[in-house]
Structure prediction request, 891 residues.
Amino acid sequence: MSGAFSVKILEWHKNTLIINTEKSRELGIRLKKLAHISFGNKRQWINLIFRKDISPNEVFISQDIIDYLLMPQFIDYEIRILNNEIVFGPFIGILINRKDSNINAKRLKLFLDYVNSYSLLNGAILVFALDKINHEEKTIEGYLYNDRVKAWIRGSYPMPCSIYRKISLSDSEKNYLLSCIGDRIFNSYYFDKYEAYNWLKVNKEIVHNVPYTDEYKSFVRIFRLMDKYGSVYLKPTAGRQGKGVIKVIKKEDKLYLMYREKGKNICEVLDEKSDIDKYLKKENYIIQQGIDVIRYQNRVVDFRVIMQKDITGEWQCTGIIARIGKEESVVSNVSSGGIAKDIDIFLKKYLKLYEIEIYMLKEKIVNFSTKVCKYLDEIGLNLGNLGLDIALDKKEKLWLIEINNKCPAPSIALDSDNRILYYRALTNPMFYAKYLAGFGEV
Amino acid sequence: MFYKINVDSNTSGRISISKTLNEKNKVSSITEEKKDIYSISAGVKSEIVEIVVDENITEDLIIISADVINKLSIPTDITYKVKFINNEICLGPVIGLLLKLNSRKLTEENIESYMNYVLLYKQFRGLLYVFAAKDIDFENNTVEGYYYYETEDGYGAMWKKSILPLASAVYRRIGVDSEIRDKLIKLTNNRFFNSYYFDKLEFYNIVSSVNSIKDNIPETQKLKSLKEIDDMFLRYNSLFLKPVNGSLGIGQKKITKEDGSYIIKGKFDDIPLKFNSRGEIENYIHKLAYNSSYLVQQGIDCVIYDERCSAIRVIMQKDDSMKWKYTTMIPYLGKKNGISSSYENYGYAMGSQDFFMKALELNSKKVYSMKMEIIEVCKRVCKAMDENGGNFGDVGIDVIVDKNLKIWILEVNKRHQHEFPLYIQDYQSFYSTKNNPIKYAVALCGFYE
Prediction:
């Protein structure tokens, strides 16, 4: 698409950049003789020359600069003037593994989907592993996307300006990256259910839509909460995909535990002498208020709301998918046997809502989800890709069940048969990364 | 928080607020000795008032003297949001929907259909009304219109007729004369959208010099004589003649050349006209250009599907973020073997997924990229309009994807049909289309959180 530049080698010169005169006016650098250019974390002083006879989409840079900046010529560059610097980019890193040896051709091929809209992204997209960061040189040995051949080219490159991370990082690793590129890595902090609850409970506008959550310490807590809420959930604090979730209910003065194991739904009586700990794994659990959620044919229903930031750095709802749990299952996750449906289809065909009701419910869900995301921004997290699990109770009140923040999988869109939503959910974070790299839009 | 208004006939020029509201907004020096000058505003109307803090009233109540209420001309049976800006208490949002020229057209029957605009009323409340251009009283800055009212339980809803203050933001869906338009722009401080109904030539002048989109704009010239046509035939195989101010494809003609003869086919013609002599064609063009304003435009080879020309209506709107957002896109096909895609009763609309996969033969990955590109080009067009001046927030852009999958912008409709998504039974997009401009209007008033 227009607006991108190719970089050509400038012969017989050193420390020089030549750009089309009209372009220099557009960029606002017409009066400059001297400037510094940057690519990722590499910077150099250069002399500027403007010429009318070169193509407006080409920039000539002397070899010494290209070598120092490690600038590949197969990239379609955009140029931004940021703080008196001529920035070539956007330079986006995708941190996919701790070890480079785990990255094979098959995996790399999957990442081609992330650069599906390269003509709108432009710039350098670098897939890399943590162990290939060269701390002395401050370079990375990774795979840079070449749109001309639609392939990843291995090489040594500068550090990127923003990182979309898909792995956990220790505190020291996070601090190291912070020192190198600043607060431009997202999602910056992975939080669990209990942390989330502690943050949300102080927000008056949100707290009433969040189920009461506490650390599970002992059996006694179950009784206290059962009295107040009627049913209670025990969930691994750092759990995912509905694994290990136990629902506790009361029926005719007896307590029952309901959970899934090996693809089956189990319901067992719990008496005082039972050791509940035998049902729990060796990890931290939270205990959470049970919500009487709406059901479809007696199956649990909730909504996965995909919230992502766009090229302007603002939250948008990419899509909402309804999840219907397997019969008698306590969870709705697809990985636990549930099914997924596009929300429009689910509300119309399954719950038989009118189109107006569907529209208004969706607006209500998006409004609430946006409020939650903006609040998390205020706390100081740098987030760009979240999956909010929202349930509706029988009085049509919204409940925030969970905030999936460790790279929530867009594959749920495929589960609901919506390929376009899948590609959107997969590529949106790249545009937020472009924004973080200094190439956003207003 | 939404505030109720109680009217006090015993006082004059006074507002009473609760202690909590006072503390929240640090309304200062409310003492007997020294009182700051305050004003209260609703829409473009504002009155100087005295503020009193009343410890006995609830947090969500504001008591206003009857004379102030009369001067502001606001209904008191609805609730409002309140903003304190320096020494001004703003009640709002106050939004006007300019939907008709004459109030005769705002009948009891019509008005029910306007309910589609208020689906999200509960989110922002305040004064939202529908009005006609002839009912604006520029001397008093008031309007006689119908404001939206909901009962407390939320089940009853109606439009109530009243004299209301001229709104802070006006969303218009009709053409008005330039005098009224300019007055509204001035009074609302440019919160009047869509502000200018530029014609096709003006549009071309706006976008043809913008580097990021000029390659997506078909070359267009004012038709004065055969000279412009011959000039353009040097570059293009086919041309379109279009009325500068036309819509729905009326008066459009496709012109091609064959062995020196000119062939012209109108939108509704089954048989084209053939002009063999230069004199004949010169006459024809001269008559056309003389009778109305015409332009000549580069012809685009649109993708043909089901023997019809195809185009896509892309609805772009601003929402509460005050940024352009993509609402929906609906491909449509024209008359069989016709010259264009504008279809009226002759053609039909299609779902976008269907169209891209069948007509453009793209797989789902490419469908996604194509959609993204179309949205990007449309966003750039919208930004170019913004940069040109005025206030735009709700447009329907006609896009053609040619046989080389290149994207062309044909036209930007400023009064586009909101019902377009209904042609493919897409109710969700229809409701979004109706309500996004309302969100934008609320944000323009400054009342979106």
The longest helix of chain A spans residues 355-379. Chain A is about 25% helix and 35% strand. The longest strand of chain A covers residues 299-309.
